[in-house]
Design goal:
Blueprint (H helix, E strand, L loop, with lengths): L1 H64 L10 H4 L1 E3 L14 E5 L8 E5 L4 E4 L2 H8 L1 H12 L10 E3 L6 E7 L10 E3 L1 E5 L8 E2 L6 E2 L5 E5 H5 L5 E3 L5 E7 L4 E7 L13 E5 L1 E2 L1 E8 L13 E6 L9 E5 L3 E6 L2 E9 L5 E7 L5 E7 L22 E3 L13 E7 L4 H17 L4 E7 L6 H15 L8 E4 L4 E3 L6 E3 L1 H5 L7 E5 L5 E5 L4 H15 L5
Parallel strand pairs: 6-15, 8-19, 17-23, 25-26, 26-27
Antiparallel strand pairs: 1-2, 2-3, 3-4, 4-23, 5-12, 6-11, 7-10, 7-13, 8-9, 13-14, 14-16, 17-20, 18-19, 18-21, 21-22, 24-27, 25-30, 28-29, 30-31
């Protein structure tokens, strides 16, 4: 009996020991798998950095020679790159045209793809590589429909009459059966701040739900914001996003104001057929990022019809470099914006029945004027025309404090901020401040600029003309050094101008000192402090 009990105890000890070893082995395997996965990811990113470096080197040569080579020899053997010579490349298609990619035969788990504007993408399969190649065709169809690649911003129209009415939607599934409980709104919202109950919304109001018969009454003010008279969005169509998340059904359709009937006319009814949703998701990397400030921390994405304006779409916000949204079959532009990085447009086609579409896009770190702080300010270059004097050089202005206001006549905030720039000129001109307003190279002459700003001068500048130097940048489309990005104007490119207006200060020593703003009284006060400090500094 005791022998039997000892045997049983020993058996349980041996069994426990074996189970412990098994657990340790599994744990070790998981750890090794995790390590291997991290190593694979690191290797993938290193490959991407090498492809990006080779791509940018080629773009620099193309920029100097103004022609794409017949063959791409640089690093092609080491990296195994396939070169696709661009044909008929335009400003609008740089970020859609694949130039180089790794061989899928050498990297069956995915290849890096480089575009003519210098940005990168990772295609996880041969199918993904084909998706990259078809973007231009998708974009061209959008241009044919809407007349532009990215679409015009909706314009405000004055409403001189009271606008009433509603549109009755009948929400149906693929078999034509009514769908109850479908959410209806002007946009879909996915991400950290949007739980399921807030997935679908109108601009400033709660979503609507379809009834048991699939019907939902949509008042016109929900869609076009016409609850009051005055400035209203009535000159453009809008999209409605319809989602039944539990059943995985979705629709995204465009509606015109004319489709909405008067309140006493219930005859206007439109059927909306829901389709199985495709989960469009992915992540962004940045193999060109080096500084901590450039690391990816958050990502916003939106999807809309190619050629439309992005405000009519489906959105995703994440506090990490990932995105996700649900879309019906069709063609879309995906706009990806990562903080401190360049924006990327990606065009996709979702086939009927497709349930997943994964993207892995690499975004370029945004090169900002701050990189030049403490260095001699780049000289004004390729200026094709001056107003109120000139030409002048920064070398000639050494000993003065120079305010460079980069602006455009097409830029509403620039026109709104100009009176504040004028006040700074008035206050400090006799103490050594020189203001130069640098307009980008989007106009042909100062005379054309005068025509563009005539309305703003009368309505917002109290009829005042520029009291300081205005420089019209030239050089056409100029590549920003260290990237594949192009901007309008040589001086604009030299200062890494990414947004408008950008207002920079150059010290008496000729070095770039600060990036300032004049939007608010608080910003103006800070700008004046910066000017005072530079004026008080030593001359040369």
């Amino acid at each position: 009996m005791e022998h039997a009990m000892d045997h049983h105890v020993n058996y349980r000890i041996r069994r426990g020991f074996c189970e412990a070893l098994a657990i340790l082995a599994i744990t070790a395997m998981n750890v090794m798998a995790g390590v291997s996965e991290k190593q694979d990811e690191q290797t993938r990113l290193i490959r991407g950095a090498k492809v990006r470096e080779a791509l940018l080197q080629m773009i620099e040569r193309v920029d100097a020679q103004e022609v794409w080579p017949q063959q791409f020899a640089s690093a092609s053997e080491e990296l195994g790159l396939v070169y696709e010579r661009p044909n008929g490349l335009t400003e609008d298609t740089r970020d859609l045209t694949v130039v180089v990619h790794e061989q899928i035969e050498r990297h069956p788990k995915g290849v890096w793809v480089g575009y003519a504007d210098g940005h990168m993408e990772f295609a996880a399969s041969g199918e993904g590589l084909a998706w990259c190649m078809e973007q231009i065709a998708i974009a061209k169809r959008g241009i044919a429909k809407y007349g532009a690649l990215y679409g015009e911003a909706p314009k405000l129209a004055v409403v001189k009459r009271e606008v009433k009415g509603a549109l009755i939607l009948k929400i149906l599934d693929e078999e034509g059966r009514p769908v109850a409980g479908a959410q209806v709104g002007t946009g879909g919202y996915f991400g950290d701040d949007y739980p399921a109950e807030k997935r679908v919304q109108f601009d400033e109001m709660e979503k609507l739900l379809s009834g048991a018969d699939g019907l939902v009454n949509v008042p016109v003010e929900r869609v076009f914001d016409v609850k009051d008279q005055g400035w209203k969005y009535l000159s453009w169509n809008r999209s409605l996003y319809v989602l039944h998340e539990e059943r995985g059904l979705v629709a995204l359709e465009e509606f015109a104001p004319s489709e909405f009937s008067a309140e006493d006319d219930a005859s206007k009814l439109r059927e909306v057929r829901l389709r199985p949703a495709c989960r469009v998701f992915g992540e962004v990397s940045s193999v060109g990022s080096s500084e901590a400030a450039e690391k990816l921390t958050e990502l916003s994405a939106c999807a809309y019809a190619p050629g439309e304006h992005w405000v009519r779409g489906v959105f995703s916000w994440r506090k990490r470099p990932e995105f996700e949204m649900k879309l019906p079959p069709g063609e879309y532009a995906i706009r990806l914006i990562a903080r401190k990085h360049e924006m990327v447009h990606r065009y996709i086609r979702i086939a009927p029945g497709q349930r997943e579409y994964r993207l892995a896009v690499d975004v370029e770190p945004r090169i900002l004027p701050e990189r030049l702080f403490g260095r001699p300010a780049p000289e004004l270059r390729s200026i094709k025309e001056w107003k109120n004097g000139g030409p002048v050089t920064l070398a000639e202005l050494r000993g003065k404090v120079v305010l460079l206001d980069f602006w455009g006549s097409w830029c509403g905030p620039c026109l709104a901020a100009m009176p504040q720039v004028m006040k700074l000129h008035d206050k400090y001109k006799d103490r050594g401040l020189v203001v130069i307003a640098v307009h980008d190279d989007s106009l042909g002459s100062i005379a054309e600029m005068e025509q563009k700003v005539a309305k703003a001068r009368e309505e917002h500048w109290d009829g005042r003309d520029f009291p300081f130097l205005v420089a019209l940048d030239g050089g056409g489309q100029v590549r920003v050094a260290g990237s594949g990005k192009y901007v309008r104007g040589a001086t604009t490119a030299a200062y890494f101008i990414n947004y408008y207006p950008t207002t920079l200060l150059v010290g008496r020593d000729g070095k770039l000192a600060a990036n300032v703003e004049v939007y608010t009284p608080e910003a103006v006060a800070e700008t004046e402090k910066a000017i005072e400090k530079l004026l008080a500094a030593e001359g040369r």
